[in-house]
Write a structure and sequence with these properties.
The chain has 189 residues and is α+β, with helices and mostly antiparallel strands. It folds into two domains: 115 residues, Heat-Labile Enterotoxin, Chain A, CATH 3.90.210; 34 residues, no CATH class. It has eight helices and six strands; from the N terminus they run E-H-H-H-E-H-E-E-H-H-H-H-E-E. A three-stranded antiparallel sheet has the order 1-3-6. It has a three-stranded antiparallel sheet with strand order 2-5-4. Helix 3 crosses helix 8. The longest helix has 11 residues.
Length: 189
């Protein structure tokens, strides 16, 4: 058995729903699961997928619950952190997105590759594109004497998916999560 969390901030879909009654359902349950859809779900925050995002971290879920889609959680309009307990025999397919993405990556000499070609700080920008935006805007460095056109580093969807999955301690469930697996709901503000 493992405990997972889902944050629901004010103005978000799950803030207005009662998963204790309906469980969690993906927005596009009929879509065929694929690694490409999994990557888009994470890298682009695409909710139109056959997946539901959860985290192993209460702290990550709390952060999502405090920052809603249009407003912050307050004492009069709190966010919620849902706690879900899933065992191997629960009938849910739980996926580790890092493993799923890594299995599909090409070898280092193949192109296109998922690696970036920026400086070390570039990943800080991928982790936090708002506060660390300047790292995403820095130009690539080239060897002396190079006449390369100045450009920002290469960022593949695969790398963005890997970094964000690690940042959020993210796991995905393919399909529905029944209400019977919900254990708690914590108000946060």
């Amino acid at each position: 058995m493992a405990f997972f969390y889902r944050g629901a901030g004010p103005g978000t879909y799950w803030h207005a729903q009662d998963p204790f009654r309906s469980g969690f359902t993906p927005k596009a349950p009929g879509q065929t699961p694929s690694t490409e859809r999994l990557i888009r779900h994470i890298a682009h925050a695409s909710v139109t997928s056959p997946y539901i995002s959860f985290t192993r971290s209460y702290g990550v879920a709390r952060a999502y619950a405090i920052v809603g889609s249009k407003r912050f959680a307050t004492t009069s309009d709190p966010g919620y952190v849902f706690e879900i307990e899933i065992s191997e025999d629960a009938g849910c397919r739980v996926l580790d997105p890092v493993r799923e993405i890594a299995q599909k990556l090409p070898m280092p000499w193949q192109s296109p590759n998922y690696q970036h070609d920026g400086e070390q700080g570039f990943l800080l920008g991928v982790v936090d594109p708002v506060k660390m935006k300047s790292h995403l805007q820095e130009y690539c460095l080239f060897p002396p004497g190079s006449a390369a056109t100045p450009r920002t580093p290469h960022l593949s969807e695969e790398l963005e998916g890997l970094v964000r999955a690690l940042r959020d301690s993210e796991v995905l469930v393919e399909g529905n999560v029944p209400a019977s697996l919900l254990r708690n709901c914590y108000e946060v503000f």
